[in-house]
Specification:
single chain; Arc Repressor Mutant, subunit A; two-stranded antiparallel sheet; 4 helices; WH_DNA-bd_sf; MarR family protein
Length: 125
């Protein structure tokens, strides 16, 4: 693939993403403000329970789901090589196999990346 073609494709994708973001922002701005209505005190008070842990609905690939399950099993944290080995990968490919999925999961806020010096651990949130 020629570099010029690749650049054109990337520019089109960026324009598409920017257009989608601006369209969603316009829709959000057009919502009418909610008017405050005075309500009388109800006879019975309702208890509202907040969920213990709210995790955003994220569509995960099977590989990402497998990595997430392994991270959740290890509450104290686990490194990428340990995740790859637990998934059954070869010793030489284990860390690189898990790194891509871990990066995406960290961006989505499903796992937490903890770095101390040269060591990197991942913990489930």
């Amino acid at each position: 693939m020629k570099i010029s073609h690749k650049r054109k494709v990337q520019l089109k994708l960026q324009k598409h993403i920017k257009a989608a973001k601006s369209a969603s922002a316009v829709v959000a701005k057009k919502e009418a403000p909610v008017k405050a209505v005075k309500a009388e005190k109800p006879a019975v008070e309702q208890k509202v329970e907040a969920p213990a842990k709210v995790v955003a609905e994220v569509s995960l690939t099977p590989k990402q789901q497998q990595v997430l399950d392994i991270v959740r099993e290890n509450a104290e944290g686990i490194n990428p090589k340990g995740i790859g080995l637990a998934a059954g990968q070869e010793d030489s490919k284990a860390a690189s196999w898990a790194t891509g999925a871990l990066k995406k999961l960290a961006e989505e806020g499903v796992v937490e990346r903890i770095q101390s010096g040269n060591k990197v651990l991942y913990k489930a949130l």
